[in-house]
Specification:
With 458 residues, this protein is of the alpha+beta class. Helices cover 35% and strands 19% of the residues. It is globular.
Length: 458
């Protein structure tokens, strides 16, 4: 990322070249004739209308503060303080921040580990159906589509179930701005019936970092959205960012179908070639029975070898992957990757000495959801203290404790730490996995965690 791949997304069309060559001239403010993002009536309104038509939404917005501002706007315009919502455990931090700021009551959906490929590829749909039936009073559902791995939950089923209970479906589709550009790609969350959808245009389209789109449907109170979009947006929005977003829409509309057809042809070709190399396998839809964004590779490595070491090996050979876990490396492509990039990837993998990637195998494990004692926003008003991890049993966690990878919280703020949680955190630490929310103190050679300080009066 970003999807323009170092400027190639702008240099391949005459319109893009104009932006590339005159970019600094677009660094202007709301002077006469240039419209105002907070009250668009001219060229910005026209550009957002073109965006709306392309995706088929009721109204579309340019976001100059990234998908984070869109996620916050979705949450604040859809829910009121105290509302109960259903949310998957593996969400972006901006979703969790929005839940705290809006003082919501989250009901978490479990994520599911694919044991064969040792990766958290999707939510547990059985648990989702259980959650929605047990919490019919929830006001909405927040889903990530696709996941960081490019795997798509069956969003049509989620939307169908939500409508039975008049719940809104909010989708963080940060990695899905290109969906629908080609029939071989998953459908966009807008097309599948979500009420609100955020897309990071910069992740997969030729658009600058920090740019994103928000789409809303007719089921949404647009006046509220207008207010919160403005509230979470800089009063000095960058015209360079907006220009790149409009160009990304233009590219998708005029060149997208053919461009993605070529890209998907290349990814399919090299996927098959890589899958013949000993030790490596690019995960396919038939492997996991779920839709996958075929513009990215989930490159799985055989048991006994390290995904992290593979990531570093690729980096040492000037191939920048997106992320790694203990068994997989994620690579994200766009129409602006050249075939030479794929040739280099293939030849680098073919030349790899697997012995150099040997490592102790570590299963990615998740536990059942812990017991919640306090709501996340209630924790923010409490005092905290640090305790040794091994002595933290029975305390209320003051922080979200997250092994990365896989990036799914073992425990959220307000939940009770039990012996299983302690053992799981220690398991990840013993395997040299970074665990956000833990602290190592060299003077005592112990790991510590933050817990809620309970008043003696209570």
């Amino acid at each position: 990322m970003p999807g323009h791949k170092g400027g190639l997304g702008f240099s391949q069309t005459s319109e893009g070249k104009k932006i590339y060559e005159k970019l600094i001239k677009y660094d202007v403010t709301e002077i006469d004739g240039l419209d105002n993002l907070h009250h668009p009536e001219g060229i910005i309104k026209e550009a957002q209308e073109l965006l709306r038509k392309l995706y088929g939404s009721w109204k579309a917005y340019f976001l100059v503060n990234g998908s984070t501002s869109g996620n916050l706007a979705m949450i604040f315009s859809s829910f009121n303080e105290g509302d109960k919502i259903i949310v998957e455990r593996n969400c972006h931090r901006s979703i969790f921040n929005g839940i705290i700021m809006r003082k919501l009551k989250p009901i978490y959906i479990k994520n599911k580990i694919n044991n064969k490929y040792n990766a958290p590829l999707s939510i547990d749909m059985e648990h989702f159906l259980y959650c929605i039936k047990k919490n019919e009073d929830a006001k909405g559902i927040i889903i990530t589509y696709p996941s960081y791995y490019g795997v798509c939950v069956d969003l049509s089923v989620i939307v169908k179930e939500a409508k039975k209970y008049s719940m809104k479906v909010l989708v963080d589709s940060a990695h899905g701005a290109h969906f629908g550009a080609n029939d071989k790609l998953p459908k966009s969350a807008v097309e599948l019936g979500a009420d609100m959808v955020v897309m990071s245009s910069h992740k997969t389209l030729p658009s600058f970092t920090q740019t994103a789109y928000l789409h809303v449907m007719s089921s949404v109170d647009v006046e509220k959205v207008d207010f919160y979009i403005s509230a979470f947006t800089s009063t000095s929005p960058s015209y360079m960012l907006m220009c790149s977003m409009d160009y990304a829409r233009f590219f998708l509309e005029t060149e997208g179908k053919e461009a993605y057809s070529k890209l998907l042809s290349i990814t399919e070709k090299y996927k098959q070639m890589i899958n013949k190399i000993k030790g490596f396998h690019v995960i396919e839809e038939d492997d996991i029975k779920l839709r996958i964004d075929k513009t990215r590779f989930i490159l799985n490595i055989e048991k006994g070898y390290s995904g992290h070491k593979l990531f570093q090996y690729l980096n040492n050979n000037s191939i920048t992957a997106e992320m790694s876990d203990s068994s997989n490396v994620i690579l994200i492509f766009s129409p602006f990757n050249r075939e030479e990039d794929f040739i280099k990837l293939y030849e680098t993998l073919k030349a790899c000495n697997l012995k150099e990637l040997e490592d102790k195998y570590m299963d990615i494990l998740l536990l059942d959801l812990p017991e919640a004692k306090l709501l996340p926003f209630e924790v923010m008003d409490k005092s905290k203290r640090q305790v040794k991890l091994k002595d933290s049993r029975g305390n209320i966690s003051f922080a979200n404790i997250i092994p990365y990878p896989p990036g799914i919280p073992l425990i959220m703020m307000g939940e009770i730490i039990d012996e299983d949680i302690i053992n799981m955190i220690q398991y990840y630490l013993d395997n040299q996995v970074t665990v956000i929310g833990t602290y190592y103190k060299k003077n005592v050679m112990e790991y510590f965690v933050d817990v809620v300080e309970i008043s003696k009066k209570s």
